[in-house]
């Protein structure tokens, strides 16, 4: 059955798979000491316009958040996030597992406002019993957010400014980074690198079989980070598997090319849905569209097409997600159009 | 300077101290195998009307919450609490330190409603992605709450029913348990024991130098609990220190007698404040009173008497706490009255 | 440069890669709910002759050890292992990271003897202060061991018996399981499944790009294991990546066929080395050969061929490892022969 | 029954108890902000001849080791200790509970030799796979050791030198520090402070009801240490309880006076045992004496006097511990003498 349930339905982009095949019999050292991990890092540095960036290749998103956050925080610190943040809700407590509290703040459409952050920090440090609470140690945001929304450059700059005023690193979860950049004219990978202390470029949802590329933007990789990765169970013996894929994704602008394709598909999807009279939960500019379905619409559609249920209301209506990706085709959208 | 800042300003009740002195040179085995720990347990069982209860003596409140919650939860589970709960806010992340998320729910005056709990659990288990979230494994409440308020028996029964319908233990933090029971006519220690799976009887704030008595109400002590206590750094070599104190507190109803005294003092304090025209943040029946002070009132009073600041507003007004305890005297209240 | 440094130098067996390519554009549900993960599980159950086995697909070896051990142990328990065990030495403390001690026991050639285990347990439980120590909760062994050696069936049976007498699960790390089974006539996958409570079938070192298949042999998967996997950062969104690979490896006996090939190559290697007069650190029947090199031999060989250094002695001599794998060819051994 | 089973059989020295009584009704701020915690710190600084030392008062030994070690180590680091060290064996895995491995090294009579340490570190850092292992981050020793033995100044200096050459703090567990210093002429508290980066002065076993005083010797308290203490469940609300006791112990040299008494008692005990023909497991100069008993001796003595069994042999003979303390009297030794 045709599905738009998520953006990890298919394997990898064909060019990625081809490179895996071409390099398959090459004997390469393990754990990331191979030429492809190095090339991937070099190409990412160039794309970020960030000569001093360190690039580390990990396997999945929750794992990446866990390793990065735990490695950057002192034992007594927690990480600030929107209360809708992926680490706050949908990572099975992977951050708390490492001993750190997720300090959840209110948000709007999935976005944490600089003002909210500032007020929290001001109140926290003014509290005479602050030493009895979890000390805020860094800030986590996602781009696009879990609702598909985007920070504009001014908003990101403002968050970055508050973080740095309080001497905390700003960390951006870019599980769908390509889709955000493709949807937003005035934001580039170099902007992200300039404003964040660390972020990751999502591969799993943007053309790879698996893999996320963590970028520490100013030589700020924590000491013995390889050991920390291993300690968290996140070190691939054949790290080339991720290296070759990111090397391919960052060759000839493939990562952004397939991201732009997904956004074109999302725009067509959005138009289709709007023209058919469907309502939207919020206005998402990226590849995830949150649609309000009546009970009748839901029951009819779910027989023919895959989507995921975000919220189910007592009256049977629901907020559901349709996602496009690098793999979505016009033919798939044609099929969907007939069902709507 | 006279202080009402908290209920742990003095040492121990004189009868407690006297027993420590009288037993001081007795040679006793370590780690709780002594006669006083056993007597304390026996007397607490009797007071709880709960023959199958297990009693374990620990040192402090945060420690007790940490050991009990971590020992009762499976690794993948979290603990539900009011978002104002002590473990949610003021224990420096001691629960997350052990790998478990505190699942914070909305409350009213510090109290978690059974309906709120039920709705959360119903929604949680109906969510198709619930396996990607922290599984709720137990419920934490405090009695009195952090705002001095109390669950009545029907409310506690309702919470207990929801917990058991979802096969989760109900845990009650009784750091100020005596003050709650003394303030509420229709609730007894036996009621607490009947409705909760585990709770602790606070000593530190109710007449002891230190010490909390954990009660597992139906033979439900986790296996190898002594080892867990030691592993959490919570096992006293001279556990008699807590045993002797609880033995004294549960002799001749001392624990409730001094608790009733504190509540009498609190009622006089409340009347005094009300008569002098002070406003209250909420209506607390127990030993903690949350008072609204204007900037002028605050500046004047803080020169002469100790209290603690709960919330400071931009205009200089504040919500402050005055607490009575077993140690509060009429003379102290007379002095305060003159200052108000 | 030609290398025998380890058994994860190349990508995947061509049949595995081919299946990844063939299934690449299929839309499949995430997190393991796909047909390939199910088929892999079914084929593994059949190969194990173990109808009630549960199969869970993870990414790497350290991760697998961490998730399985942490999920099986109670908080106060530790895992017993040989002091040369991978979890004892070369996993960067991944087990301790989850709060559990590795209880390291003496071994011979990497093997833990049932008698050693029995004596340890007997002494432990007879110790009057055993409650102040880490409680042993399970036993970890590796097959083949880190030195390439193998337990025979009687030895494995004896270990299994001791474990079960003490009510502890026996866990077998099969990172190189195929190579062990291919080297040992009287041991089958079904024997492993019958004697162990849980084990994993290594993919990363035996023909896959990545992936390990955990087998709980008698319906003993811990509750909410998917949540635990996610919490440890070990859940692939595109879990199909491992599912397709194990489906291929367990089709037409591919896993054992390529394992037997590696052992044939290892035997040729061993013969070659012996005939050239090289000494062995110990007698390994599997794909890892530990060879003693003089300083001169080491300096000459390391210019021409890759191997890994196991121990370096002050006089410059060394114990080094040569490994074959599914990917080793006769041509490579021909080349090596000329260099020896 | 008279007992020499351990050095925590009685309560507190009378002068300590008296000060608790005298200060009992004073209203004091919580968590260590009181005058007695400050005075204790000041007196300890003076006794250590260490103006820049920070003193923090905790409750028990395992707790202290856990808080100090976890706060000093980075997440990926472990702590080196003798394999007989208290943290290696008898703290129920309290260090591993915080995520860190105890890296156990061989010892002699409980003492870790500088040469052993140096060789370990040299080999570790020369290992090409050291990044896959737990990184050594600090060194733990106990003084006196678990066998009652003592490092002399040259040995401690040598350990300190190796630690500092490898940029690691040296931490000394002084659960029985007074008994060590009283037994050794050429070692003072100032020497300990000069050679260690952090250590603790044991109170529980040397005259206090509970309490240990941690000394960071050169302004090297970890940031937000109070928060860490709270997070570990180790912060007393009435921290005065420990403050008053250490203030008393460090007034008029009481701590050393009662320590010297215990050592005098130990010397008499040792002489008595030797004269009666008992053998010793090793030669301990401090308050713990390890005695070899035949089955007959053991069976006869255990009916009349308490001691603790260290090792029980198959033939019924045993190594047992007799301990003296600040509380031991000549009358008690007289009684024992008659039984031997």
Structure characterization notes:
The structure is a homotetramer of 340-residue chains. Chain A is built from 14 helices and 11 strands. With 340 residues, chain A is α/β, with parallel strands linked by helices. In chain A, the strands form 2 sheets. A 7-stranded mixed β-sheet of chain A has the order 1-7-6-5-4-2-3, with helices on both faces. A 4-stranded antiparallel β-sheet of chain A has the order 8-9-11-10. In chain A, helix 8 packs across helix 12 (254-275).
Instruction: Give the strand order, joined by hyphens, for the main sheet of chain A.
Output: 1-7-6-5-4-2-3
First and last CA, distance of chain A: 15 Å
Number of helices of chain A: 14
Characterize the biggest β-sheet of chain A.
Answer: 7 strands, mixed
The proportion of residues forming helix of chain A, as a percent range, comes to 40-55%
Could you say how many structural domains of chain A there are in total?
2
Percent strand of chain A: 15-25%
Mean pLDDT of chain A: 97
Please name the CATH architecture of the largest domain in chain A. Answer: 3-Layer(aba) Sandwich
Count of DSSP strands of chain A? 11
| CATH homologous superfamily grouping of the largest domain in chain A | Type I PLP-dependent aspartate aminotransferase-like (Major domain)
Q: What string gives the helices and strands of chain A in order?
A: HHEHEHHEHEHEHHEEHHHEEHEEH
CATH top level of the largest domain in chain A is Alpha Beta
What structural category do the secondary elements of chain A indicate?
A: alpha/beta
Q: Largest inter-chain interface?
A: A-C, 54 and 54 residues
CATH topology name of the largest domain in chain A, in short, is: Aspartate Aminotransferase, domain 2
Q: What oligomeric state do the depicted chains represent?
A: homotetramer
Low-confidence stretches of chain A: none
Shape of chain A: globular
What's the alpha carbon Rg of chain A, rounded to whole Å? Answer: 20 Å
